[in-house]
Amino acid sequence: MCLAVPGRVLRIEERDGTKMADVDFGGVIKEVCLEYLPDLEVGEYAIVHVGFALQRLDEESARRTLELFAGLGILQEEFGDPWEAAVAMGRTAGGAETGVEEVRR
Q1: Neighbours of 62 (CB within 10 A)
Q2: Looking at the predicted structure, is the pLDDT value of residue 11 above 60?
């Protein structure tokens, strides 16, 4: 599932001619393109979808949304460890999880 998730801008820089930011999504830091919101500043919140900041958001709305997503497990689903997800998928599909654990190590 792809979601638009609120995140807080931690750092902004230009990378190869593109305005980029490190954004905190409730403890998960990802690189985000700011070309659609070039005036976004460090400390502000934005809705991010597929790596692009799309809309500015106030802090209270961002925090409420992140808390709701975390409570529903959506943040873990969206940003969680892909190896853990593969193991869980193997369990539900009846697959062998030992191969995944061996590769992870």
Answers
A1: 21
A2: yes
Report whether pLDDT(101) > 60.
no
CB 10 within 8 A of CB 21: yes
The domains found in the chain, sorted by start residue, are 5-57 (2.30.30.140), 60-93 (no CATH)
**Number of residues assigned to the chain:** 105
Buried b (16+ CB within 10 A) or exposed e, 75-93: beeebeeeeeebbeebeee
**Residue 61, SS3 per DSSP:** helix
Q: Sorting pLDDT into bands at 50, 70 and 90, what band is 91? A: low
| CB neighbour list of residue 50: distance below 8 Å, 6 or more residues apart | 2
Say what the pTM is.
0.68
Tell whether the torsion through CA atoms of 12, 14, 15 and 20 is positive or negative.
positive
The stretch 39-67 carries a mean pLDDT of 93
Would you say 48 and 7 are in contact if contact means Cβ atoms under 8 Å apart? Answer: yes
pLDDT at 9 over 80: yes
